[in-house]
Hints:
Elements: H1 2-11, H2 22-54, H3 58-69, H4 73-83, H5 88-112, H6 116-124, H7 129-159, H8 172-180, H9 184-212, H10 222-242
Helix pairs in contact: 1-9, 2-5, 2-7, 3-5, 4-5, 5-7, 6-7, 6-10, 7-9, 7-10, 8-9
Membrane topology: Multi-pass membrane protein
Domain ABC transmembrane type-1: 26-205
Protein name: ABC transporter permease
Amino acid sequence: MIFADALEWLLSPGNWSGSTSIPTRVGVHLLYCLAAVLGASAIAVPLGLWIGHTGRGGTLLVAGGNALRALPTLGLVTLLYLLLGGGQVGVVVALVVLAIPPLLAGAYAGVQDVDRGVVDAARGMGMTGSQVLWRVELPNALPLLLGGVRNATLQVVATASVAAYVGIETLGRPLLDGLRVLDYGQFVGGAVLIALLAVALDLLLAGVGGLVVPKGLTLGTRRRKGKLSATAAAQREVRGSKA
């Protein structure tokens, strides 16, 4: 019965037009998610790569990541919304904070997981620290790094629904309105939309990962093939720099 009501709500023409329509809310939801993931990536990815490359601050990173994960989502969104003047910036900042841990963990773990023999070989062939990071460690870290991006995106898609509690017209609005008037069809319909959006974005990022990650370099084969592929790449880079 509830699922039939949800389907009826989803197919209702009145929900597909106007300023509070489903397409409008999907667009707003996507904008907040995009802003949050990009903002968090600008902070977490360089920091995670640097810590993974230098090996400094790993313990602090783990402790900080766990602390950020423990923050209450609704409380953080509400607090920053009020502290930053009740505008959209507070919501975006809260989502950025919540997206940082998986991105930071993915970047750090990706670099740390690179075969140390490959790194030593690259250094032995004359590569500088920055060359090792960008030409050897980063390509080999891409599977875990992109995994962190996917995890952060899924978390933000789910968390952005909380923004409806402070008046933002995201896909959390049907959940909030449905609970307020006990319209469980609307509530389930909103939940289905969020789930579909999360699945669609995850599939999109998986496709992007398949295009970006070097051929043969996957989580399952990286330990077997990573050393050979990275060493060959390092040799090509050194030859190019000496030419």
